[in-house]
Amino acid sequence: MTLESAGPWTDAFRAALDDGVSPFEERILVDGSVTPEEVEAAHDRVRRCLADSGLGIDYDPDGGFELESLDGKYPDDFFERSDPILRSCEERADEYVTYLFAETRRNPERRDDAEITVPCLQAAGLVGADYSEQQWRADYDADTFPFDSTSDEAQQCALDPLGLWRTP
After folding, report:
1. What are the residues facing 67 on neighbouring strands?
2. pLDDT computed for residue 139 by the predictor
3. Given the DSSP bridges, would you call strands 65-69 and 55-59 parallel, antiparallel or unpaired?
4. pLDDT at 46 over 90
5. What is the pTM of this model?
6. % helix / strand / coil in the chain, to the nearest 5?
7. Are 114 and 133 in contact (CB under 8 A)?
8. Which residues 6+ apart lie within 8 Å of 37 measured at CB?
9. DSSP 8-class letter at 60
10. Does residue 3 surpass a pLDDT of 90?
11. Which end of the chain is more exposed for a tag (fewer CB within 10 A), N or C?
């Protein structure tokens, strides 16, 4: 396989590789795709790296994560102490793997976000038929959606607007 197998995501994979990723991450990204097993391998490396510093990480299957202290203590400066450690661990294994996996899974043809999100919002009944891609962009930029963006329906449209992988 070549990087060109990334299709419309080729430039994003190339940019990640050009950014000087770790050898581990390079082996994952060089073929232009990221598998669920490769994401888990990257997450496992980050977990082990964090554990060396007394930290744990809990990855959400929909994206995101929560950091935790393995000893259960959370000093006032927990974020300030843990953030540089997390960044260092991610530099070794997951600067781009999770991101590219999530984005290529969410939008494999790399279509415009408004183009794929507005029909989902309309189908979910969150906005009317007159709600436009232009309005979505303005609402997105201002973080002022005319619906509860934390609702299950809105989260479904944000995470999987094409209905390709996530079960609502």
Report:
1. 57
2. 98
3. antiparallel
4. yes
5. 0.89
6. 55, 5, 40
7. yes
8. none
9. -
10. no
11. N
For residue 83, count CB atoms less than 10 angstroms from its CB and return exposed for 0-12, middle for 13-18, buried for 19 or more: exposed
Encoding tokens for residue 161?
């607007």
Structure tokens at 25: 């991450």
pLDDT of residue 65: 94
Q: In the beta sheet, which residues pair with residue 59?
A: 65
* C-beta of residue 105 within 8 angstroms of C-beta of residue 34: no
- Token pair of 81, please? 């102490």
Tell me the two tokens of residue 12: 């994003």
* CB-CB contact of 47 with 141 (8 Å): no
Distance (Å) of CA 62 to CA 34, 102, 110, 138: 16, 9, 19, 25
Rounded Cα distance, 55 and 155, in Å: 28
Q: How many CB atoms lie within 10 A of CB 54?
A: 14
Residue found under tokens 């790399």 = 110
Amino acid identity for residue 44 in this structure: D
